[in-house]
Known about the structure:
alpha/beta, Rossmann fold, 2 domains, 8-stranded mixed sheet, 10 helices, 12 strands, binds ketopantoate
Amino acid sequence: MPTTQATAIDHNNPWYILGAGAMGCLWAAYLTLAGFPAVLITRTKRNGSNIQLTKNGHSQSITVKQITVSEVQQSALNIKQLLVTTKAQQTLPALTDIKPNIDKQATLLILQNGMASKDIAKLLPSQQLITGITTDGAYRTSELTVVHAGEGETLIGDRHIIQYLPKQFLSIKYCDDIDSRQWQKLAINCAINGLTVIYQCRNGELLDNEKAMARIQLLCDEITTVMQALAIDIQNPLFEQTVHTLNITANNFSSMYQDCKQQQTTEIDFINGYLCNEAKRLNISCPENQRVLASIKQIEQSYA
Ligand code: KPL
């Protein structure tokens, strides 16, 4: 992803936010509170115009502008700044729907799990795509009610854009090796998310499950081989990073667990699926990642 060219970003241009889930609502609320114009793009018209934001037991109501996808499509809107918080598997269809309204020189900040970025670059070749990775924890209790449950850190692969982000409310930092950080995040998601679905548990419960921990070791070994073949810097052994994440998110239900509970398609194709495709391209065998991929696919197919 090109991250070095200067961003054509402007304080007066609104941030449009595609993906009105927990992360989208959280960012819409904080952008608005920080005084940046922000507009949440929703699939269907929402009841009300206020986002109810709760953090540390304190709630506040924030009026956030909203527009539906069909209103965007029927307008002459030319989006110059777009924050993408859709799930990886929904990103291409969602961007395709509003593609005519995205300026050719627009700046897109992509904040999501998994690796959808190559597909986005094919769809929007002239726009500037900036990667963000976040460990903030948020969940919604209704369409426009969001709880900022865990204060994490958001790393951004572009220095200039940070001044246009709500850094007084979120810990937002520039990261000069965002590709490698994105891979470490992918590795952790490969090692945790599928197994929480397979063993039907919170993240932390995997630590007490011997069989699951042995599988995490195998998953991490395979991912390490792929990352080494791609010459991606691995800061700490992936198994250690995964155990650390399991400890600090012990009470969480992973995003994939939550998707499966709601019988929704998961991000598996952009997590273990992406890893397996890269491995295949490099002629590396990844049987444990294949097993996790196949199990989750089977679970998704059982919804119908
Ligand atoms: O990113 C996550 C997810 O659930 O998608 C982890 C790190 C596993 C935390 O729950």
